[in-house]
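Can you please make up a whole protein chain along with its backbone structure tokens because I've never seen that pairing?
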Amino acid sequence: MIGMSETTDPEGNEVAAVLTTPEAWRDFLQRYGELYVKVCADEEELGDLLDEDQLEALDQGGNVELWLGEAPARKEALAAAEERLGVRFPPSLRGFFLASDGWTRFGDHLDRVHPCGSVEWMRDSEAGSRVTATYASIPGNEEDVELFRRFIEIARGEDFWLLDPTDVGPDGEWAAYEFAPKYGDATQHPSFSALFRSGYESMEEDADEDMD
């Protein structure tokens, strides 16, 4: 069985409010990008991302304004992705795609959040189907395999970000999971928004440790 832990957003915490609009997502992703270049990017990556003035500002401890995301998804492309999968994405995921059609800068074991046109069922993706088949070959993993077969794969790298369209909260958000196949561990979040925030919070913790 998958080792499962769960996180929840504190009630009444404005910072933890679910991001649902493209405007809210752009503001958050802008801050995410600024923190990423301070905490996660190495010298080579910084040289690719920043010009000389930005590098100097960063070296002096200032914030660097830049957009690390993609162009917004067209509404037609978003509707086509939903039709292809037979679902309507939860509000936070729709808002994300309408702000940035994918994401590739992470401080953890992910390569990218898929653009909406590449989102697929975990059971159908190349990496997801391998994980599903591996678990299915081991007796006692039936519950896990059932989860994999109903998950939608949102992001992938060494780990996965997965959403469960059968587990819907009162706000219309789907349960979201960080899954590390290497360790068989999964962490559940109440929404895609909360899942993305967890990466931001991890970078903040790394930044605080660097300052100590």
Observations:
- Confidence is low (pLDDT under 50) at residues 8-15.
